[in-house]
Amino acid sequence: MPELPEVETVRRGLQPAMEGAVIAQARVNRPDLRWPFPDRMAERLTGAKVTQLRRRSKYILADLDTGESLLIHLGMSGRMTVSGDPLGQFAHNHPAAAKHDHVVFDMDNGARVTFNDPRRFGAMDLLPSDNSDSHPLLAKLGPEPLGNDFHEAYLVERLSARNTPIKSALLDQRIIAGLGNIYVCEALFRAGIAPTRKAGALSKKHIQNLVPIIRDVLEAAIAAGGSSLKDFRQADGELGYFQHSFDVYGREGEPCKTPDCKGKIDRITQSGRSSFFCAQCQR
Active-site residues: which are they? Predict the structure, then answer.
C-alpha cells in the first residue's frame, strides 16, 4: 500500500498537468472501484478547473472551482500516470487504452491523466471542498508528520501512558497521518528503539527525538521518488528508488548497516504486519 512519500510523489507529479487546468473531459469506465463512484461523477468533473492539488495523509485531493473536491486513494495497485503534457515533462503521445484504465481525465492543456488499478482497491469520491475535513476517511486523522502541528510536545502528550508497542502507536492514523509500515520500521531503527517497546515506557527524550527522525526519513523517501516494491509508479511511469536505501525493511537475515555492529536484521509479526529491526542497535 503506498504510504505518504509515494502519495506525495504522485501529487507532485500530477501538479504540472492538473493544477490550474480544466478537465475538458472525464471518462469513468466502470461503476465502482473499492466502492461505487459518486453519482454523475464524469459529468460533475467535466468542465471543472483544478484550483489546487493537495495531499491529506495517504489521499490526494483535487480542489475544483465548482466547490467540490475529488478525493483519490491509490489502494494497493492504483497508478495515476500522465501523458501528452505540452510542457514537455511527460511523453507526448497518449498510450493505447489498457484493460484497467478505470478513470481518465483529458485536460484542456493537452495532458491526459489515467487512473489504472488492476486490483480495484483504490477509491474516488466527491465532497464539498469547504467541509472536506469531515469526510469519514479524513475526520479522525492526526496531524501531518511534515506539518507544523506535529512537534515534540504533541508526540510526548499522545504517547504518554500508552500501553501499546511503539510500532503500533506510530501506525495509528489518529496519532500521525500517513505513516505506514515501511517508514515506521526505518524511523525506529534510526532512533535506536525496538518496535516492541511500550510507547508509554519511552523516555521523553526518546519520543522527542522521533519527531525529526520521522521527518528526515519521509523527506529522504520523497526526494527518492518513494519506494517501489510491487506496483507503485510515479506520475511519469518511473519507479521510485528509496527501497535501495532501506536500513532494515525487507532485509531479514542481512547484516546490520551500523558500523561495527555484528548483528543481523530480524523480522517479527506485529498486528499482522512485519517489523524489521536490529536487536543489537534497537533497545
Answer: 2-3, 58, 273
In the chain, the largest separation of any two C-alpha atoms, in whole Å, equals 62
According to the 3-state scheme, what is the secondary structure of the chain? CCCHHHHHHHHHHHHHHHCCCEEEEEEECCCECCCECCCCHHHHHCCCEEEEEEEECCEEEEEECCCEEEEEECCCCCEEEEECCCCCCCCCCCCCCCCCEEEEEEECCCCEEEEECCCCCCEEEEEEHHHHHHCCCCCCCCCCCCCCCCCHHHHHHHHCCCCCEHHHHHHCCCCCCCCCHHHHHHHHHHHCCCCCCEHHHCCHHHHHHHHHHHHHHHHHHHHCCCCCCCCCCCCCCCCCCHHHHCCCCCCCCCECCCCCCCCEEEEEEECCEEEEEECCCCC
Provide the whole-model pTM.
0.89
Burial of 258 per CB tally in 10 Å (0-12, 13-18, 19+): middle
Three cell numbers, residue 101 = 484504465
258: which 3 cell numbers? 551500523
Express each pLDDT in 205-235 by its tens digit: 999 999 999 999 999 988 877 654 444 444 5
- The lowest-confidence range among 30-39, 50-59, 224-233 is 224-233
Contact 187, 220 (CB under 8 A): no
Contact 9, 31 (CB under 8 A): no
